Amino acid sequence: MSILRIETLDDPRLGDYRGLTDAALAKTRSRFIAESTVVVRRALASGAAPVSFLVDERHGGVIDELNTQHPDTPLFVGPAPVLEELTGFHLHRGALGAFDRPAPADLDALLEGARRVVVLEDVAEHTNVGAIFRSAAGLGIDAVLLSPRSADPLYRRAIRVSMGTVFSQPWARLDAWPDGIAALKRHGFEVHALELTDDAIGIDELAERNPQRLALVLGTEGAGIRPETLGAVDGAVLIPMREGVSSLNVGAAAAIALWELRAR
Ligand SMILES: C[S@@+](CC[C@H](N)C(=O)[O-])C[C@H]1O[C@@H](n2cnc3c(N)ncnc32)[C@H](O)[C@@H]1O
Fold it and tell me: Are residues 13 and 138 in the same domain?
């Protein structure tokens, strides 16, 4: 029996659940936190290794399910106010799971045979990263690559917004950017920036050409794609908008572009 009633918040085994609202700290941790029963189930289904679970005592069904399926994994149970004091937020979705971070994917192996790749250049908001992963997974993207300064896909908010697709969608973090463009070109990718530049072509035009291998770079929320990146890619592509609107949210732009540019 691995159900453990929380007696004291000093228990060192609860360390994974402390200060969960600190995103910078989360990036340095060797574990990630899955939030909500659905996302915990998806993490388990992906083969991620659970270290422990933390469940609100009112969710008896979830406690039974996790304890039956993972009898050797510590399952901490306690009242909502105690869990809130521990984690720093109200745990209204019932369950949290702490999991070992998977080993980083090998970039060359990811790109081998891929036809559609998305690169996130310094996308800083966890909600945008999560939304882009969800679209990428749903729309058939073979790999998502992140520049070193992009937000962590395994931060709990990104995981939650992605609805757990960060576990199934292949991805890798690049060591350097825009130097990573060289690796994409070595693998035969046309690299295009999704950006509103004066010389950008319309997205329909690129979709019609249907490149065999296409990597699409998405820009950071504030400034958009860096000038040095624009100088290194094969071209820029834009989603035409009504006059007077400066840009779309990067997550919304990604969903439109990934659908339009899907491999055919
Ligand atoms: C919010 S925008 C950045 C700001 C934008 N460069 C501006 O001057 O308003 C963030 C990213 O979303 C994408 N994006 C948003 N709207 C777009 C559009 N209409 N066409 C192409 N890319 C777009 C680009 O990748 C852009 O770098």
Answer: no
pLDDT, tens digit, 9 for 90 and up, residues 84-124:
999 988 877 789 999 999 999 999 999 999 999 999 999 99
Into how many domains does the chain fold?
2
Q: Are residues 132 and 240 located together in one domain of the fold?
A: yes
From the CA of 248, give the closest atom in ligand 1: 16
Select from 247, 249, 259 the residue to mutate for testing ligand 1; criterion: most ligand atoms less than 8 Å from CB. Answer: 247
User: Which of residues 42, 73, 100 is at a domain's end?
Assistant: 100
Q: Do 141 and 169 meet the contact criterion of CB atoms below 8 Å apart?
A: yes
Pocket test for ligand 1, best of 196, 205, 261 (most atoms within 8 A of CB): 196
The verdict on the CB of residue 151 being under 6 Å from ligand 1 is no
Placement of tokens 């989603």 in the chain: 239
The structure tokens listed for 263 are: 């491999």
- How far apart, in whole angstroms, are the C-alpha atoms of residue 67 and residue 12? 21
Residues 73, 43 contacting (CB under 8 angstroms): no
Check whether residue 167 and residue 112 sit in a common domain. Answer: yes
175-187 residue pLDDT tens = 999 999 999 999 9
* C-beta of 241 in contact with ligand 1 (< 6 A): yes
117 and 65 both lie in a single domain: no
- Please check whether residues 118 and 247 belong to one and the same domain: yes
